[in-house]
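Long-time lurker. I teach an intro course on protein structure, and each term I like to show students one example going from raw sequence to a predicted 3D structure in C-alpha cell notation. This year I'd like something fresh instead of my usual example. Would anyone be willing to generate the C-alpha cells for the chain below so I can use it in lecture? Attribution to the forum is fine with me.
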Amino acid sequence: MIKKVLIANRGEIAVRIIRACHQLGIQTVAVYSTVDKEALHVQLADQAVCIGEAAATKSYLVKEQILSAAVATGADAIHPGFGFLSENSQFAKMCQECGIIFIGPRAETIDSMGDKANAKATMIRAQVPVVPGSDGVVNDADEALKQAQVIGYPVLIKAVSGGGGKGMRLAYNDAEFTAGFAAARQEARAAFNDSRVYLEKFIENPRHIEVQIIADQYGNVVHLGERDCSVQRNNQKLIEEAPSQFIDDNLRAGLGQAAVNAAKEVGYINAGTIEFLVDKHKNYYFMEMNTRIQVEHPVTEMITGIDLVQAQIRIANGEPLGFTQEDVHFNGHAIECRINAEAPEQNFMPSPGLIQGLHFPGGNGVRIDSGVYAGYKILPYYDSMIAKIIVQAPTRIEAIAKMQVALNELIVDGVQTTADFQYQLLSHEKFQNNTHDTSFVAKLLEE
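-- Reply from a regular --
Happy to contribute to a lecture. Here you go:
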C-alpha cells in the first residue's frame, strides 16, 4: 500500500494532489525551491524538503534532488503532476530503479508517446485517423520541401519532442517553409535538445477536442468523455469545457472508441489524454497523447463525479479500475477558466508581485483550484497560472452565466490577471453561439 507520496511539483497542482492524498489517508511530502518556502503546497504537506535554487533547472527539474528527498523522507511513491518532469521517461525509470512508485504510465509508454513521429505510427497501427503528413522524421531541408509540396500547403513543421507550441512553424508556401524548417529545428534544439521535426497538413480552423482515458494494470481501459479546448492563444489553452457541444453522439462515440483503442495499443496504464483536431466537416484526426494528468482535468471530474487524481493513486497502488464504461455518466456542463498573472493589454506580459488582497468566488457548482493566498508573492520564475475557476451547471448557457458571475466576484489586488479578458471571451457572440474554433482568440486580438 502507498503510505507516503512525494509531489514533484508546485502551485495549484501540488495542492490538488496533496488534498487527494489526504482524503485517501496518505501522507505527503512537498518539495520546494529556495524562493518557494512560503508556498501553499509547502504549508499543506506533512513534510517539506528544499531541493534547490529558484530556477526550475536547479530545483524542480533536478531528478536526483527529488529522488533524494523521496528516499530521505521515506516516500514510497512520487506524483509528478503536470509540466516539469511529468512526461520525462528517464525520471519515471529512475523512480522504478529506486523502488519508488511513479504515479503515471510506464517509462517506455512515455517514451513511445513523447516521440510525436512514433506516436503517429502507433496510432496508424491502432486504426486511429491521423493528420496527413510526412512518414516520420525529416532531416534534410530539400527532401522536406518536396514532401511539403506533396502534402499540400498549408503545412505544419512540428518538433518530435515538442509541446506548448515550441518547435512549431506554419508555412503557406515554399519560401515560408524553407525559413520555417530551419527556425523550427533551431527552436526545438534549444527547447528540447532534440532538433528532429516532422510535417503535418495544417487543418485550418479546427476544433481542439481531447478525450480523457483511465486504465489499470489489468487491461481495463475506460474513457471519461471529451473536453473542448478550442479557446487558445499561441497554442496555450485558456478555456476548456466538457462535454463539447460541437460534436454529436455518433462522433462522440467514435472519438471515445478511438481513444480507448489508442490506449490499448500502447498498453497504457494510469490517466492520459488523447488529443484530436476536428475539422468543419466533423472529420477527426489524432494530434498527440499526453501521458500525465491535464491542467483541465477538473471539468471532467465535475461532470463525471470521478476524482482523477485519486484514481491515479489507486491504479499506481495496483488496484483495479473499479468501474466500467457503462458506469460512466455525464451530468450537465462544466467550464474551466485559467487565471494567469498576466497583463492582456501589454501582450500578456507576466505580472509577478505581491497579492495584497484576494477573494475567490464561491457558491453551488463553483470550484477553485489554486496555490495562492493573500500575502503570497507571485514569482517570475515559473508558469504564470495562479488559479483555475471551474463551474458546473445543467446546460452550457447556464454554465457560461455562472462563470461570468464567478469572474466578476474574483478579486486579486496587487497583480494584474487575465480574468477580465476571460470574461470578454465568454461574452463574445462566437463563444456564446458555439461557433468558435482554435483561431478565435487570435482573430479577436487582431480586431
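Some talking points for your students: The chain has three domains: 4-103, 132-201, 207-446. The radius of gyration is 21 Å.
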